[in-house]
Amino acid sequence: MFRIYKITFIFFVDSESKEEKSIRNKILNKMAGNILVKNDQWYQYEKPIWVAKSPDFIAEAVRSNFREITNIAWMKTPFFSRLFNDLKTNCIKSVNLDISKYIGFKNGVLNWQTMEFETEEPEANDLFKLYYFRDFLPYDFQTLDISEIHKQEDLEILVQQNMPAIYNWFSETLENFEFSAIILCFAAAIIKQYKLDRFLYFFGPSNTGKSTAIRFFDKLFISDAVITKQLSDLSSSFGLAEIVETNVRLLVVRDAEGSISGKTVAVLKNLVSNCEPISVSRKFLTSVNFVFSGGIIIASNFSNIFQKTAKGILEERIIPIEFSNVISPENQKELDIFFPESEKSCPFGC
Fold it and tell me: What residue stretches are annotated with the SF3 helicase domain (predicted)?
């Protein structure tokens, strides 16, 4: 014998209350201008740069703001979904992070398209950060006249006059100003985001100044802008995830050893070109094709790590600089003595 039951389905419409609407608006207003989406990639403004973030990070930021505003630990799922979608819909998507025109300095901002310097602080205008260059150089901008530089001797005089401590260190370490000029011009090119199509290869015995020369670049940028990798990381599964998720201006291999695989050389070639995309895998996120626009420096105690694999692919991209003068322990000094704060301003009018 079968019994037949009449089942009635009751549908509840999850409408938003006035209180929830007020909370939603407070959260959106608090996060507005600090979050944007470009090509499905989230960014959060962390003074003074935009930093790539995962959807999970943004979701947790939404929950954190909810807890702060309401003092309630748990958020209803439908309310969270609406709030998250509203954030994605309303955050500014039109900002092209690749063509934003400003570089930040301690004393103002440089419009790199017009090469005009503006003394207004970035935080003085809330809308300014929406067009920010994603970069900040942690020193004052200094304008120098470079119109009279027509040959290497003119450049040497300019550097010697405006950067005496830096000039002296490079001169004593490398002896040949031509090498010093290459390093300083390479630094200026990274700052101006030129397509370098070259990378620096420092080689020579231990204690010859290779690491100190790289630390000169460390001092030119904020910490997140310089990352250190092993050569094997370039071809490993997630070894390059950081270049997508942070604003990397310089990738450094500080102690390269042994031979280099063909796969690593191929990846390095694409990285150096500044125009060829590479596939970057990321944990728990989809892979992306990414064009790296920064510089690369590789340092090694050996001169021949590219001997077998560089031919035809990298031989025209390498700028080898030999460090041959061993620095005795008593002559090794604090970094600030070599590269004082007052001399870090770009010497080439950049």
Answer: 175-336
